[in-house]
Specification:
Largest sheet: 6 strands, mixed
Strand order of the largest sheet: 2-1-6-5-4-3
Structural class: alpha+beta
CATH architecture: Roll
CATH class: Alpha Beta
Strand content: 35-45%
Radius of gyration: 14 Å
Order of helices and strands: HHEEHEEEEH
Shape: globular
Distance between the termini: 32 Å
CATH topology: Nuclear Transport Factor 2, Chain: A
Oligomer: single chain
Number of helices: 4
Length: 137
């Protein structure tokens, strides 16, 4: 069951997910923001909830840092869906920062993300940090 009140906008939930889970790398927040039946399709890669959780557990244990910016002028909300352009900058010590542009559509169920479709530039699955620390072999 979600902690989000029914009147909470999808954008508010998305912002909270980035600020409370992604940027501080707080894996304990993942069940608050993602439905147990969650499915991600990103650049042709499909992940279920458990795969997504394991990947985030692994990457959050590294020294990676995240800075997220939602481009407000691109946000479209309709019912249980939200679409947006998001910029995620990742940094690892000793490496150059990587800015990843994300075009995303999310479908929420009871205040949690149920489905997430993403196209990213560059393709995050090809960034060395994620290939080494996130993706399953």
């Amino acid at each position: 069951m979600s902690n989000a009140p029914p009147s909470t906008s999808n954008l508010t939930i998305l912002r909270r997910m980035f600020s409370e889970m992604v940027e501080p790398k707080n894996i304990a927040k993942l069940p608050e923001f993602f439905d147990p039946q969650f499915e991600l399709i990103a650049n042709g890669v499909t992940q279920d909830y458990d795969t997504f959780l394991r990947g985030h557990e692994k990457i959050y244990q590294t020294a990676i840092t995240y800075a997220v910016e939602v481009e407000e002028t691109t946000v479209v909300e309709c019912g249980d869906r939200i679409a947006a352009r998001v910029f995620i900058t990742t940094t690892m010590p000793g490496e150059a920062a990587h800015e990843i542009e994300v075009l995303m559509i999310a479908q929420l169920k009871e205040g949690r993300i149920r489905n997430l479709w993403e196209l990213t530039r560059p393709d995050w699955t090809q960034v060395d940090t994620f290939k080494e620390h996130y993706l399953e072999s």
